[in-house]
Amino acid sequence: MINTLLTLLLAPLLRLFCRRAAVPPQRVLVIQAAKIGDAICTSPLLRELRAGLPHAHVAVLANPAVAPLLQANPRIDAIIPVTAAEWRGTLGKLRLAARLRRGNFDVVFCCNGGSVWPLATLWAGIPQRIGVLPNFAGRSQRLAGRLWSHGVAHRGDRLIVESYFDMLRAAGVEPVATDKEVFAAPAAQERVAALLPEAGKYVGIAVSAANKLKELESGTLAAVAAGLLDAQPDIRIVLLGTAGDAGRAGALTGALAPAQQARLIDTCGQVALADLPALLARLAAFVGVDSGLTYMADALNLPLVSVAGPCNMAETRPVNPRAAIIQRRLPCLPCAHIFRAPTTCHVGTLACIRDVQAGEIVAAVLRALDGTAA
């Protein structure tokens, strides 16, 4: 709070030390330091930014864990990996500002909340600073938002990409298309071929979620897998997750009959993040919750079924025409938002997840496979 108040007082002086911006902007910074799903939801901004400023140098400040997924994106010229630990405290913010100053950026588009970004970008002397103003923000963050050259207030009743596009418009870029995109690393197709030959009706199931509030129970996932395998003899199930999901994947596999297990492929921990788009592209359909893998499947235009649980589908959701969303109508929903993400159920029932039956998910997947998901 002290940093914010002092910067607000000194803002007129600090603006005098901002570099003179090139017109049109030649060096552009996009800040998206959140998780995989957030990065994929930022892909329309990157594409439309590149279309509007085709000769600009575009750098993305990103979470190092997500950076490998961005490396193959042709809209990006450079990636600046930064962890939250690096901007902790006043010294951390000053070091971040110094690093950004060396980039000589003309404009920044910030897709994240937090007081660190308006502070560090002004301290860095970036002349045009455009940031989203979260609909859920504490006092310090609201005050820091005044430091943006142009702040775009996000509303929870519209897709976050519309807020991102308002940021582009503030810089004179008129966006067109809102569809997401994702790119696989070079030679990814060859690497995933050993796991999934091209021929086959593969249905991917994400076995976990980073936010456990959104996660389907292992028993439900096992019942979904069994139901799909029983419904169509040519279906094969592909389990998707990290090495840390091995326990859940093993429990799911163990719950199936031996004949069903023979038609299951466990890829958890076997595929690098940068190769996942190539793996998902081989699927006939995908089942997940509100997570990075679901948005990756959406970007690839896969038939998919997303169990939305507690999430606000008005502001972020799969939008491809072959996506189906399952969500209960409960008085407590939505409780999970882009800028406010609880990790526990405030009513203690997890009804938004537990009330969804495996049979409902199976039926939705079968419709998706038949081309009637929407």
What's the layout of helices and strands?
Blueprint: H1 2-16, E1 27-32, H2 36-41, H3 43-52, E2 57-62, H4 67-70, E3 78-81, H5 89-101, E4 107-110, H6 116-123, E5 128-133, H7 139-144, E6 150-153, H8 160-170, H9 188-193, E7 201-206, H10 218-231, E8 235-240, H11 246-254, H12 258-261, E9 264-266, H13 276-280, E10 285-289, H14 292-299, E11 304-307, E12 323-326, H15 351-354, H16 358-369
Parallel strand pairs: 1-2, 1-4, 2-3, 4-5, 5-6, 7-8, 7-10, 8-9, 10-11, 11-12
**Secondary-structure element order, as H and E?**
HEHHEHEHEHEHEHHEHEHHEHEHEEHH
In the sheet with the most strands, the strands line up as: 3-2-1-4-5-6
Structural class: alpha/beta
Average the pLDDT over all residues and give the rounded result: 95
| Strand proportion | 15-25%
Large-scale geometry: elongated
How many helices does DSSP assign?
Answer: 16
Tally of structural domains: 2
The CATH class of the largest domain turns out to be Alpha Beta
Low-confidence stretches: none
Please give the radius of gyration in angstroms: 22 Å
Give the helix level as a range of percent.
25-40%
Number of strands: 12
CA(first)-CA(last) distance: 47 Å
Do you know the CATH architecture of the largest domain? Answer: 3-Layer(aba) Sandwich
CATH topology of the largest domain: Rossmann fold
CATH superfamily of the largest domain: Glycogen Phosphorylase B
Largest sheet: 6 strands, parallel
